[in-house]
Amino acid sequence: MADQKSQLDVLKMIERFLKQQAELYGEEIYLSEKTPSPILSKEEEDEPSSSGRQLQFSASISTSTRHVEKKEEMATKQRPGESPSKTIKISEEQGLFENVVLKSEWKIDPKWHDSISLPQLEERISKCLKCRLGSTRKNFVFGVGNPNAKLVFIGEAPGADEDEQGEPFVGRAGQLLNKILAAVQLRREDVYICNILKCRPPNNRDPLPEEVEACEPFLKRQLEIIRPKLIMCLGRIAGQTLLKTNATLTELRNNIYEYEGIKVLVTFHPAALLRNPNWKRPAWEDVQKMRKMYDEI
Ligand code: SF4
Fold first, then answer.
1. Nearest CA to ligand 1 atom 4
2. Pocket perturbation via mutation, ligand 1, pick of 124, 198, 204, 213 by most ligand atoms within 8 A of CB
């Protein structure tokens, strides 16, 4: 406990130092084409990125509020002799380490790693406050379905309906997912459905790296208990986040990956299919490929 407090004190000293640096040298930071940025909008992330200098800590220290506000503040600026780069101005005063929660306040059973069933695991982590999403959620969204499923569907995080009901994929997108399953003779009860994050990010923003880092161990234990043979990621963000890659959705859809020894496919998020019916045909091809692999395992 004392150790954790002193670690937090050190982080706060670093924060003060960074603020002093910002006062002295300005508050602009630059993104490189290599850095997967949580602060670019989906459309911008899909565009080829311009070159620029890199500041790695931008991803790990961003908070939800800054995340949203930075999107609005982004502008393009070119320095003499440099190719165009994206420049972000941090204008608001906010603690860099606001997302740091002391281990003693996580409210999870320390024996959660040893859970041998899904209900036991859920009970041990359902009050989790390991990241700040724990204090803004309405309901913890663990997962639903067959605990012995060969096939697991993974989305990025709960949305408003899921947060309200405590179950993944229950809104309009969830109904479409049920129809997709029915089209390949599967029911919701045959498979397991969950998300990378168990709590809803405010305004449905993308998961932050520190939130994924905090929550992913729970997903890993879930999968160790279920022992599926195949994972279908729903949406680009789920695929990129789970597979730790910047690949486009097209690249993700065209390949078969592995996560913790389990084969992984990626397809469109059902909500994207609701927005753009033209994607239903390629999505149907993905689902047929999934069914074929499901039959072979
Ligand atoms: S998102 Fe995951 S790590 Fe964060 S509070 Fe919820 S359960 Fe805990």
1. 131
2. 198
Please, what CATH class does the domain formed by 103-296 belong to? alpha beta
Banded model confidence at residue 75, pLDDT cuts 50, 70, 90:
very low
Helices (H) and strands (E) counted in the chain, each on its own, are 12, 9
List the beta bridge partners of residue 231: 152, 264
Q: Is the Cα dihedral 42, 48, 50, 51 positive or negative?
A: positive
For a pocket test of ligand 1, which of 100, 107, 128 has the largest count of ligand atoms closer than 8 A to its C-beta?
Answer: 128
Q: How many CB atoms lie within 10 A of CB 184?
A: 14
- Structural contact between residues 200 and 163, judged by C-beta atoms closer than 8 angstroms: yes
**Confidence band of 10 (pLDDT split at 50, 70, 90):** confident
Tokens 């850095």 map to which residue?
35
CA 141 / ligand 1 centre spacing (Å): 10
- Cβ atoms 121, 113 nearer than 8 A: no
The domain limits of the chain are: 2-89, 103-296
Place of tokens 């999107």: 71
Residues framing ligand 1 (Cβ under 6 A) = 128-131, 133-134, 197-199, 211, 214-215
pLDDT recorded at residue 41:
37
| Own/partner pairs, 1-9, CB within 8 angstroms, 24+ separation | 1/102, 1/104, 4/102, 4/103, 4/104, 5/102, 8/97, 8/100, 8/102
* pLDDT(214) > 80: yes
pTM given for the model: 0.72
d(CA 118, ligand 1 centre) in Å: 16
